[in-house]
Write a structure and sequence with these properties.
- The chain is of the alpha/beta class.
- 38% of the residues lie in helices and 18% in strands.
- It has one domain: TIM Barrel, CATH 3.20.20.30.
- It has an eight-stranded parallel beta barrel, surrounded by six helices. A two-stranded antiparallel sheet has the order 6-7.
- Strand 1, helix 1 and strand 2 form a beta-alpha-beta unit.
- Helix 1 crosses helix 2 and helix 2 runs parallel beside helix 3.
């Protein structure tokens, strides 16, 4: 069955567990959070997912650590999947990421989706002293290392960017064989990376069903070339009114998850009230009819 998710971007912290718990009660299947580590004081128009180059955020946008937020939500929920959309993988050590994600997987009893990206904001990498040019190759090594940490008893690694002698990593995640790693990005290189390395693809922005179908076909081709089989998730934001008919169009296009982003008008009602009203409406018009 198609998983209907909810982005909680815009909620204040005290509202997050309450809204997430209500979403779970009403039949939502996943909760999603966004992530950046730091912004430059002026964000250049280099965002690749809008025609203007401007992202849907500004340097003063408050963003919390995704693993802390999702742990907070995990404590208030029992079933919903908990996903990052997306976590900028090459900004961190593979050990730090593996530990944080494993911790949440254990606390949530196996509900984590590690959605990752390679980053689009060069100034963010420069601010924290991480190399921008080699981030794609480092991402590949990071994914290899994380999966080894999650599945092997003793791990040693020798790569171009990361090398270490035998280490132990415990505990292992709840999910077997390991936590799904799903990639964002929309260039051909990004789609190929998702197909070759990932367990799924996460779309940025709002996609029409016909466009999703084209991407799914392209990814499937890359997966065949790489000799990869098995489950592969396609996650996208709903660009249409969330009706049963429209959601089924996404499902027919190959989507396995569709997440919704409530449109909140500042100053009309509280953000929490707006989210709750939206959840009830989606429950009545969509979730009860799928």
């Amino acid at each position: 069955m198609l998983n209907i998710g909810l982005s909680i971007f815009g909620l204040k912290p005290s509202s997050m567990p309450k809204v997430a718990a209500r979403a779970e009660e009403l039949g939502f299947g996943s909760i999603w959070v966004a992530e950046h580590l730091v912004f430059p004081a002026v964000i250049p128009p280099t965002y690749p997912y809008s025609s203007s180059g401007h992202p849907p955020i500004n340097p003063d946008t408050p963003l919390l650590d995704p693993w802390v937020v999702l742990s907070y939500i995990a404590a208030a929920t029992k079933k919903v999947k908990l996903g990052t959309g997306v976590y900028i993988l090459p900004l961190r050590s593979p050990f730090v990421t593996a530990r944080a994600v494993t911790t949440l997987d254990r606390l949530s009893e196996g509900r984590v989706i590690l959605g990752v990206g390679v980053g689009w904001l060069k100034e963010e990498f420069q601010a924290v002293g991480e190399n921008w040019e080699n981030r794609l190759k480092r991402t590949r090594e990071t994914v290899e290392i994380i999966r080894k940490l999650w599945t092997e008893e003793t791990i040693a690694y020798k790569g171009q960017y990361y090398s270490f002698d035998a280490v132990k990593f415990q505990p292992k995640p709840v999910q077997k064989p390991c936590i799904p790693i799903e990639f964002g990005g929309e260039t051909k290189a990004a789609l190929r990376r998702a197909a070759e390395l990932g367990d799924g693809w996460i779309a940025a922005g709002r996609w029409q069903p016909d466009d999703v179908a084209k991407v799914v076909a392209e990814i499937q081709g890359y997966r065949r070339e790489a000799g990869r089989t098995g489950p592969f998730n396609i996650t996208c934001s709903c660009a249409l009114e969330p009706t049963p008919e429209n959601v089924r169009r996404y499902e027919a296009a190959g989507a396995t998850r569709v997440y919704l982003r409530p449109a909140v008008s500042p100053g009309v009602v509280s953000v929490e009230e707006a989210f709750n009203a939206y959840l009830e409406r989606v429950h009545d018009t969509l979730l009860t009819k799928l």
